[in-house]
Design a protein that fits this description.
β3, α3 and β4 form a beta-alpha-beta unit. The longest helix has 17 residues. This protein is 30% helix and 24% strand. It is globular and about 70 Å long. The protein starts with 12 loop residues before the first helix and ends in a 9-residue tail after the last helix. α4 crosses α5. The protein contains 16 helices and 25 strands. Among the domains are: 171 residues, Rossmann fold (3-Layer(aba) Sandwich); 71 residues, Luciferase, domain 3, CATH 2.30.38; 97 residues, 2-Layer Sandwich (GMP Synthetase, Chain A, domain 3), CATH 3.30.300. The strands form five sheets. It has a nine-stranded mixed β-sheet, with helices on both faces. By secondary structure, it is an alpha/beta fold. The site of adenosine-5'-diphosphate has 23 residues, from β14, β19 and β20.
Length: 546
């Protein structure tokens, strides 16, 4: 093979911020602080502080390329700086999800072999728990100034602002091989232990570029994106990299993610685009309905991480004029795999047909390939009807799990595709539609029922705020669907009225046998309804005499 005659210019995280600092003087990063204040600065200021941190990590703490440095923090400017400083010196930024149970965190920190941790001071108890479990952590840095150091900080804990104040300006960012490891993130491990996905500098940059290419309207210099999706899980869908690549301003909400706090933040900061999971947007929608308006500059949003019901998309688009982009992805993919950017202008023909299209997860990004296979492992046609196991490969898809040969063996095919565990259809235009996670499908009398399809239908009922459908053992049918519904405040409704609405939209077999009204639904650490937990709670529901 004859190679092209092009320079070997490494794609790296630090190259993104270094360029943004020079060419986007108007791009800002704004962070909501716990005390109610907001911190706002330019990409250039962010680079300067990231450089001081990078130098301190190397010189004062002896962090070396390849070392794993954990973060345990909300979306703040300091966390943003840590992303660039840690990866910029060739170390691996290992994001920890504070919603995981202590035992899970202990397992992950130990499995990753983290040598240092940068944590919000509000997580000091968790940090104490992790570090007292005989972990190999050598340094604990609390992401605060001297006044914010908690009295119960572990011995030897370092104050972040002190650390970077003691480090001089100017840093020679090392030139790294772009295949070098950069960020490590563990999936929630709803089945078994959490599994690590280790991205590289190249995959992070490719992922950011491909996301920008798929949804360019979000990435203009005049846009301001609110990243509700956390830096502590799935790299905030790549936003820390895609925004400085394009000079788009970034807003980081800290820890208050309720509808009211997010509304006020977006309104005051004139956020134009907001990215998050459906449950977060349900909270925002309730707030918008109460105030009878949207945050003033918000005109587009991205929803993903779990299936958003059509009624949610419709409410944002039709009632408030906010264009919704629906996305799907996985930790193992960097994470974004598809984006559905069909515009509401398509709704003119038939709203139902438009919403059906819009609830599909969308077309693969450039850099992502998809296929669906039947149970025998044969490829299925892309006709929008046949559903099978979704497998992917691509420029930001892992090729193995971090230090986990056994799980890797199960998760990849012999020809190198990653098995997503999702069941999907793909239509002739390339739109992928998740029918269900394989383990959430309901098998009733030998037929498969998609829990997502039934949830979507139920969410069309105006009295339902949130709902979930699970398969529960049944003496005759093997499993039957059970609907758990949270009603909007002050609403009362008979289960029959919900069932008859569902009956208009799904096959008879998929109509839930019963509707149970609950005050709230449990969520996983990554914001999905915890179906595993609910299946356990209701496992005998159809078996016992009620
Ligand atoms: P975890 O498994 O730790 O919760 P991930 O974010 O990696 O974290 O979860 C990926 C899974 O989330 C996908 O395999 C899919 O089942 C589900 N998912 C993500 N986005 C969507 C979406 N838009 N619609 C339906 N399911 C989704």
């Amino acid at each position: 093979m004859r190679h092209g005659q092009i320079m070997d210019w490494p794609l790296s995280t630090s190259s993104i911020l270094r360029r943004a600092a020079k060419v986007f003087p108007d791009g800002t990063v704004t962070a909501q602080l716990p005390d109610g204040r907001r911190h706002r600065y330019s990409y250039s200021d962010a680079l300067q502080r990231a450089a001081r941190l990078a130098k301190a990590l190397q010189r004062d703490l002896g962090i070396k390329p390849g070392d794993r440095v954990a973060t345990l923090a909300w979306n703040t400017h300091r966390h943003f700086e840590a992303y660039f400083a840690i990866t910029g010196i060739g170390a691996i930024c290992h994001t920890l999800n504070p919603r995981y149970a202590l035992e899970q965190l202990e397992y992950i920190v130990d499995h990753a072999g983290d040598v240092a941790i940068l944590a919000d001071s509000s997580f000091v108890k968790l940090v104490q728990g992790i570090s007292s479990a005989g972990s190999q952590l050598k340094h604990i840095i609390l992401l605060t100034d001297a006044d914010g150091m908690p009295p119960d900080a572990p011995d030897g804990a370092i104050c972040y602002e002190r650390l970077i104040a003691g480090s001089a300006d100017g840093f020679d960012w090392p030139e790294l091989d772009d295949q070098a490891a950069a960020i490590l993130c563990y999936t929630s491990g709803t089945t078994g232990d959490p599994k690590g996905a280790l991205s590289s500098h190249r995959s992070l940059v490719m992922h950011a570029l491909c996301t920008i290419a798929a949804a360019p309207a979000h990435f203009l210099e005049r846009e301001k994106i609110l990243a509700v999706v956390p830096l502590f899980h799935v790299n905030a869908w790549g936003l820390p990299f895609s925004t400085p690549i394009t000079g788009t301003s970034l807003v980081l909400p800290g820890s208050n993610l309720d509808g009211k706090s997010l509304f006020d933040l977006m309104d005051q900061e004139e956020v134009t685009s907001a990215w998050g999971v459906p449950t977060i947007w349900l909270g925002l929608l309730a707030e918008m309905r109460q105030r009878n308006r949207k945050p003033k500059a918000l005109h587009q949003m991205v929803v993903g991480g779990a299936a958003p019901p059509g009624s949610l998309i419709d409410a944002f688009e039709a009632d408030f004029g906010i264009e919704v982009t629906h996305g799907w992805g996985m930790t193992e993919m960097g994470p974004v795999g598809t984006l559905n950017t069909q515009s509401p202008s398509k709704a003119t023909e038939s709203k139902d047909a438009y919403l059906e299209l819009k609830t599909k997860q969308g077309r693969p990004l450039y850099g992502v390939e998809m296929r669906i296979l039947d149970e025998a492992g044969d490829p299925l046609p892309h006709d929008g009807k046949n559903s099978g196991e979704l497998q992917v490969r691509g420029a930001a898809v892992i090729k193995e799990y971090y230090k986990n040969a056994a799980i890797t063996e199960e998760a990849f095919t012999a020809d190198g595709w990653f098995k997503t565990g999702d069941i999907a259809t793909i239509d002739s235009a390339g739109n992928m539609n998740i029918v269900d996670r394989a383990k959430d499908m309901i098998k009733s009398g030998g037929e498969w029922i998609s829990s997502i399809e039934v949830e979507n239908a139920a969410m069309g009922h105006p009295a339902i705020a949130e709902c979930c459908v699970i398969g529960v053992s049944h003496p005759h049918w093997q499993e039957r669907p059970l609907l758990l519904a949270v009603l909007c405040e002050g609403q009362e409704v008979a289960s029959e009225s919900i069932k008859s609405l569902i009956a208009e939209r799904v096959a008879k077999i998929a109509i839930p046998d019963e509707v149970i009204f609950v005050d709230g639904l449990p969520h996983t650490a990554t914001g999905k309804v915890s179906k595993r937990h609910l299946r356990e709670t209701y496992k005998d529901y159809f078996l016992s005499d009620r």
